[in-house]
Amino acid sequence: MPKLWNDTIDAHRRDVQEAILEATAALVSAKGLQAVTMSQIAEEAGIGRATLYKYYSDVESILVAWHKRHISAHLEHLAQVRDQAGDADERLASVLEAFALISFERRDTNLAAVLHRGEHVAHAERHLSEMIRELLDEAAKAGGIRRDVAAGELAAYCLHALAAASSLSSKAAVRRLVGVTLAGLKIR
Question: Domain span at residue 73?
């Protein structure tokens, strides 16, 4: 087949997948996880049910694909935050705050229970932990972060502490949590 034909088909497939993912996210947000059907998703996406089933077998598989895309976007955002900040301490503080704010925005526990399992989540958690560990190593070499605890252990501490942002009531509270977490990392 000619390249133009293949490019057109690939673009169409991406557009259909995007429409499916967005329709599913909107429906789940509006109706709740248990109330969404494949028929509703097909209608909302503007495609036939048969087309929908060519891409996904059920609502959960669509949500997992949406979640993978969402996680990738979060990791890209955190990498951008890291790369735009100044010195090692600023990069660490910026990434920790950005992660805490992501946690704060993620509040749907029913959806989280379905989506926060599987290899894609474990992979993202490893990637994020490694990013934080590297930032901690850099900050420790610059002299501002404690060295009496391994950077990997400190990274786990930070991620678990900042995941609590999902239960906080305001962004100001999130920033205070980040401040307390950073204070625990400093040399005393």
Answer: 63-188
CB-based burial of residue 4 (10 Å sphere; 0-12 exposed, 13-18 middle, 19+ buried)? exposed
User: Tens digit of pLDDT for each residue in 44-74?
Assistant: 999 999 999 999 999 888 888 888 888 888 8
Contact status, residue 135 vs residue 82, Cβ threshold 8 Å:
yes
| Contact indicator for 141, 63 with CB cutoff of 8 Å | no
* Domain match, 50 and 100 both: no
What's the domain count of the chain?
2
Instruction: Check if the beta carbon of residue 108 is closer than 8 Å to that of residue 160.
Output: no
pTM for the structure as a whole: 0.77
Query: Rounded distance, CA 89 to CA 135, Å?
Result: 8
